[in-house]
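Technical note accompanying the year-one report. For the benefit of new consortium partners, we illustrate the data format agreed upon in the data management plan: each record pairs a sequence with a structure-token string. No post-processing was applied to the example shown here.
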Amino acid sequence: MTANTVSTVPSGNSNALLLLLKARTFIALILVTVFFTIFAPNFLSAANLVIMSKHVALNAFLAIGMTFVIISGGIDLSVGSIVGLCGMVAGYLVLHGIDLGLGWSIQFNTLEICLMVIVVGIFIGAINAFLITKLNVAPFIATLGTLYVARGAAMLSSDGRTFPNLNGNPEYGSDSFRWIGAGDVLGIPVSIWMLVAVGVLAAYIAMRTPLGRFIYAVGGNERAAGLSGVKVTQVKYFVYMFSGFCGALVGIIISSQLVAAHPATGDTFELNAIAAAVLGGTSMAGGRGKIGGTIIGAFVIGVLSDGLVMMGVSSFWQTVIKGLVIIAAVVIDQAQQRVQARVALQQQAALGQ
């Protein structure tokens, strides 16, 4: 077999096309940034960049957790509701602590509140993993169920009302809660520093640890991974618990930024997380994806959302556009896989000549 019989497209053109497809997320980020710089007034102003970076951070946290889940061959539809529930837990603890009855209560400082909220997020992730691994519930159905349960629990925690004025109490050391969402270090918002830490940790796990290799192996072929000695159940527990952890962080940050907690917070956030992961090159079939690409994808979604708002585009049209972005990302991902297969065949044919 010769190279000419494998494909009518020259190998050089195929390689160039493959390179463009792999860099599609970065190219998309440049294009949307240039577009809104031209058509949205004050898009690159310092104030708007700070606000936009905070929005991007929220989406990126969830997208990082979602990336691990999707790479492992699953999906997590519950992260938006985890954000809402964890925000409400944080708000309740800041305002009331834990009521013991008879006028007694236990109050907590900011660090203790954050740790308790994170435990809640991780626990919900563990429930998702239990449903999927032990009860053999499909990931879509399992996380859809916890989506409703967590959202309902958030509503029940306050009868649908907001927990306002989360300024904390200096006497209990909870007055620093606001700093998480409003503070900065060296002029950079705290949430961005948190994103850097979580992003570096996630990238290290994915690229440098056996756990990362196991996550890719489970997503590529779960049965083969299990036969090779990979502890599939533990891997799935990790990815869903990590996703819950990321959701808890976002719940804390939003309630701190707003100095209030509302049970509807995080509604549809899971869609933005999925969009960022897919746009960043994560395959919905599992087994493929990178944390760096996901973070760039989160920037694309963030820039797109804020730019459309600044241009006065209706929120309804924003939803339509985000849906089209997801569809386009999946279509391009399929095209990339076809081109990769073509290039592989060309290389095999060249070696066989």
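Partners are asked to follow this layout when depositing records. Confidence is low (pLDDT under 50) at residues 1-10.
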